[in-house]
Amino acid sequence: MDKKKINFYYGIVITLVGIAVFYRIPQVMPKIETIEFLAHKLVVVKACFYILGAMLIMAGSIRIYKNYK
What we know:
- The protein has about 70 residues and is mainly α.
- The chain is about 85% helix and about 0% strand.
């Protein structure tokens, strides 16, 4: 397999992981609420998760786009 194909499939995997992060946030937040240290910082934690998901989707999309450019 050449490097171009590997980068393309890696971009797909990164994009899917980013989508999975968005899917998992509502399921994980109740568990995070039980952690005493993070209980008062839920907005920041949720924002960080959404930023992480968006960055993963963006990075994967850029990799896929550059493959066809």
